[in-house]
């Protein structure tokens, strides 16, 4: 009986003891330990470093790689080659048809380039935009040729360097003087008699004999472009060959052959000019 009365009392005392013990413990021992976190200073330094990598000074150069440098060099090189090819086209268009054919044959270019050059030669100086587009097109056709060979051919043609031209073309001096290269559209059927022959003969005789009226008539032709400098050179060649004197029969034959060749070149040039003159001129 006594034990039954004392048991609840002991339990009450034990519960009171434990409650008092936990209440007296420090607060930090009663709470759960916090999860580990990154220090604030470390977080700030990391975010600052990350944002710093994303920033760039206004005048600071962009980082470049070897591949980027090679790409820029190739683009600049292509631009230079394109300009050089357009300049070649302009130089070629200033030459006579036989000179153009000779150069195109040496650099192994076909009739497409010749036709493009013939077209731009027919365009007047007032057709600036058309000439610009045509020269750009010609430049594209010329980009694959050997640049050193083309430069030498153009320079030798401008300077009338016969030795250099012989070395580059493989033609003899007689072939160069006669300008007898591949036939072009202006020379097809040139041996046939047509309505232009009388005019060509009159022009040729007048230029060779220094007839002022005929000379002025030829050089003042309108409606078609032609190389006046080349025409003067052809006329001088005929006149010079006629003034030469041979000491013996063999020398006389050489002079006669040179005169015939010079006259053929002059006649061919004048016939091409006559055919291109508008009918209403």
TrEMBL record:
SUPFAM superfamilies: PSPTO4464-like. Pfam families: DarP. Residues 55-74, 167-201 are annotated as: Disordered. Residues 174-194 have a biased composition (Acidic residues). InterPro entries: DarP, DarP_sf. PANTHER family: OS04G0250700 PROTEIN, OSJNBB0026I12.6 PROTEIN. This is Uncharacterized protein. It comes from Clitoria ternatea.
